[in-house]
Amino acid sequence: MQIGNLPRIRLAYLPTPLEEAPRLTEFLGGPRIWLKRDDLTGLAMGGNKARKLEFLLGQARADNCDVVITVGAVQSNHARMTAAAARRLGMDAVLVLNGEDPGHAQGNLLLDRIFGADVRIVQTDDDYVLMGVVDDVARHLRKDGRRPYVIPRGGSNAFGAAAYMTAALELLTQANQMGVRVDAIVHASTSGGTQSGLYTGTKVTESGVQVIGISAGPKKEIVARRVLGIVEDLAQLLELRWRPHPDDIIVHDEFVGERYGVPTPECLGAIRLLARTEGVLLDPVYTGKAMAGLRGLVASERFRPEQTVVFWHTGGQPALFAHAAALQEG
After folding, report:
1. What's the mean pLDDT when you consider all of the chain?
2. Cis amide bond preceding 31, omega within 30
3. Residue 219 has pLDDT above 90, yes or no
4. pLDDT band at 126 (very low <50, low <70, confident <90, very high)
5. Whole-model pTM above 0.70?
6. How far apart are CA 224 and CA 119, in angstroms?
7. Which residues are catalytic?
8. Closest CA to 74 of 94, 58, 56, 96
9. In order of start, what are the domains of the chain with their CATH numbers?
10. In this structure, are residues 34 and 310 in contact, taking their beta carbons and an 8 Å threshold?
11. Percentages helix, strand, coil for the chain, rounded to the nearest 5?
C-alpha cells in the first residue's frame, strides 16, 4: 500500500517551520543547529502528536468509530491532543492516565478537562494493568452500543509512524530547498513512533541522515526494541521491500535521570538555555531531556563543528506549568 492511500484527516498546520538556531550554535560551539518546530502544529497548543492523529483518526473514521480511547501519563501531551482532535471530529474521548491524581488540574490535565474528555486516573506504572483498564472501558462502551477506537500510548504504531515517515520527507524537502545538508536528527524518543517514522523515511530515501533518539524514561534497549517493532509493522503496512537493521537504531538513555516525568538539572538547564538563546520553550518531560542530550552529545564531540544537526522539537510546553516550582529556581 502507498502511504498516500492510508486514511487521513488534516489536523496540523504543515509543513512546520525549519529554523536555524545561530545563538544556540554559538553557545555550544557547533555543530550548526536547526530546529524543526513541530511544537507549532497548531492543534491544542501544538506538538508532534497532531501528525500521528491525522492517520490514527483517519483510520478511526474509516472504521466508523464514535469514541476514542487512549493511554498516557497524567501530563500526557498525546492524551491532550487526542481529546482535542476527537472533539474536532465530533467524537468523544476517554483518557486512561497513569500516575498520582494531583487534585488541582494544571498543564495538560487541565486542558483534558477543558476539552471535556472522560479522564480516568489509575495509580499504576504497569502497562498491563493500564491496558486492562482500557479493555474494560472498550468492552463497556461496546455493550452500550458505542464504537470505540483504541490508540496506543503516544500514538505509536504503524499508522502513527507513517505520519513521521512523511514528516521525514517534509524535512528533507525543506532542507534541499534551503541548500542545507542535514547530517543528523536528534529528538525525544520514548514510545517509539516518532523515531520509527523518521528512521524509515531517512532510510528509504537513502538520505544518509542519522536519527538519534534521546529516551525520556525507558532503557535504551526497550526503546530500540519498540522502534524496531514499529518499523517492521510500518514496512509491512506499506509493503516495503526494505527492512531495518537493528544496529542502525540509535537511542541514548544516559540523560533520563531519576525516572520518566522527573526533570533533571540538565533538563531544566536546557529549557533555560534554549529560552534565553532562541526564545523557544521546551517541556520538562521530553524535549528538555532531549536538548540536554543534544548538549551532552556536542560536549562529547559526537558531532564535528562543520556538521548540521536538526533538533526535532516535538512540543509539550503545557507541562511546564505543572513543574513551576522546579523551573523558578535558577
Report:
1. 96
2. yes
3. yes
4. confident
5. yes
6. 30
7. 76
8. 96
9. 13-48+156-328 (3.40.50.1100), 65-146 (3.40.50.1100)
10. yes
11. 50, 15, 35
